[in-house]
Amino acid sequence: MTERQLVEIRGGIGMVFQEGALFDSLSVRENVGYRLTEEGQMSESEIEAEVLQLLGFVGLEEAIDKMPAELSGGMKRRVGIARALVGTPKIVLYDEPTAGLDPITKRTIVELMIKLRDTEGVTSVFVTHDLHAASIIATEYVAADKDGHIAFQQGGESLCLLNNNFIMLQNGSICFEGSYQEMMNSEVPYIRTFTS
Questions:
Q1: pTM (predicted TM-score)
Q2: Is the pLDDT of residue 8 over 90?
């Protein structure tokens, strides 16, 4: 592929880095709008509207003028998610997005991932050591009521979240690939160390 073709493909993929990977010298507004500014195809007011919409999605509109040093770890991850959503990607890659976060903030990040999957149709590739967070993604979904309010629901016997696939590596090789339920029922000793 040419560089131009690769850029086009990369435009459909968002990336959320483990530590947020924000530019320290840029405000939240500038971090989220960075790609749009660099592309030069939108006016300042269009970029501002897009940035506000994305920050609204992650619940951080009030942080728009803050610098990364003023944000908590969870806020940095949420800004990273907003930045990854620029251009409405169909795939978002998450590199340990819940690592080092407190349980409430982890839950917030996981809920954003579920919301993206279920309301926006975004495919997620979630690399993690956090089996608890992965289990939430595999067993919960978002449902909207008639007024459009969303609520998180547990998948039960009547609902199987079929589109979740777990891959576990051991010594650099795939030792398991399958559903959450198959992983939880696995008798492979290495897998049992994580699931028991």
A1: 0.79
A2: no
